[in-house]
Amino acid sequence: MSSTATSAGVPIVRPSTGLYGYERALKRVGLGPVAGADEAGRGACAGPLVAGAVILADSKARQITNLRDSKLLSAAQRERCYDEITRKAVAWSVVCIGPGDCDRMGMHVANIAALRRALLRLDVPPGFVLTDGFGVDGLGVPGLAVWKGDRVAACVAAASIIAKVTRDRIMCELHAEYPEYAFDIHKGYCTELHQERLDRYGPSATHRMRFENVARTARVSAP
Q1: Is the peptide bond between 11 and the residue preceding it cis, with omega within 30 degrees of 0?
Q2: Under DSSP, is residue 87 helix (H, G, I), strand (E, B) or coil?
Q3: What DSSP state is assigned to residue 198?
Q4: What long-range pairs does 143-151 form, CB within 8 A, spacing at least 24?
Q5: Is pLDDT above 70 for 126?
Q6: Which CATH architecture has domain 3-168?
Q7: Which of 50, 79, 133, 211 could form a disulfide with 167 if both were Cys (CB 3.0 to 4.6 A apart)?
């Protein structure tokens, strides 16, 4: 299935064009540079929400080796890609929103805010923005929300890796502070192990209290 990138003067991007197809098509109609943005941690019940934004270089020499959606890579592969992206990208940025702000804003609002902040922090202003799943307003440039964008657009895949690696590193740091929750293993997501530790110890300061499983545990463990 093809995807329409803009509503007028529209390039059509087909799957056969490869992971860099969106960027090439948009640049051909004068909409470059193209930035991609994605988040990590939206579904976690502990730790920060992290958003990354990336503008990749045009030249083949600066393309990212084995680039793909962060969820399809091992931790070691993500680390290697992260290093390569931060070396070769035209611009990149990362933003963290803490669990307290996630609770205050609600996850959808926090998600859009994180993506917007990451895109606005890029050192090079984009001419067009691709985001994974959710449209982001307030950027002053046109954009497109792409379903499974981290699997079809190179800049979004790169942003997903920046966000994921950054967040995983933060969760490992939080593990040192709260070793009883095993954040280094589940990274704050709602796994069976995490719930077992949450039920045993109650919520920590880095848990998101608006998540029902956390709120339920807090009620049970309250004196």
Answers
A1: no
A2: helix
A3: H
A4: 144/5, 144/6, 146/3, 146/22, 148/69, 149/36, 149/38, 150/38, 150/69, 150/70, 150/71, 151/68, 151/69, 151/72
A5: yes
A6: 2-Layer Sandwich (3.30)
A7: 50
